[in-house]
Amino acid sequence: MGDASDYSTLVAGIRARAPSTRIIVLNVPNVGALPYFTGAALDQRQAQQRLSVGFTTMAVNVLASQGVTVVDLMCDPRSYLPSNYSSDFHPNDSGYAFISSEVVNAITLSSYPAPRGSCPQMTVVP
Predict the structure, then answer these.
(1) Distance CA 21, CA 56 (A)
(2) Domain 4-123, what fold?
(3) Is residue 46 exposed (0-12), middle (13-18) or buried (19+ Cβ within 10 Å)?
(4) Staple partner for 36: which of 75, 89, 97, 122, CB 3.0–4.6 Å?
């Protein structure tokens, strides 16, 4: 996954070579709250939550302050619908359709909302 500063360095490198490029990134859902992990041990779910929430908040969402558009999968309730997942934690066709529609919105809308700083989905696992 790398250090959170690696993402800022990557954005700076892109901007140095193509200053007017619009950059769009996606954060990740709280993996510990995905349907695949409902039967997992609590400590495994807690670890998944710490990793995904930490990555989202410390490495991805902070890019919004650098003018990067962040698609907020972490706080979107659709990210947790069982109908959007295959038998593991990867999206199925409907999940990919939901995600791709958000990317299209991020590309085409003149103003796309910034990622939320907190939401109930960040603390689903006790």
Answers:
(1) 22
(2) Rossmann fold (3.40.50)
(3) middle
(4) 89
